[in-house]
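**Backbone shape codes:**
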Amino acid sequence: MQAAVQTHARTVPPAIDVSILIVSYNTRAMTLEAIRSAYAETKNATIEIICVDNASSDGSAEAIARAFPQVDLVALDT
């Protein structure tokens, strides 16, 4: 990832080439593999991954947070 650029006393994040949104429900293994694949296939791009977990009971949100702390995780509880 590129470093943030400092301009006029405010920090500007690097430009994002691709935003990836993953919505999951009780698909821990599949979601983890999707995230791994996204990072593997986008080595030449700056990406952000947003994952929305719909109150999974299989530990999906915890596994995603543990394996990929850089992913923006929205863990819904209902």
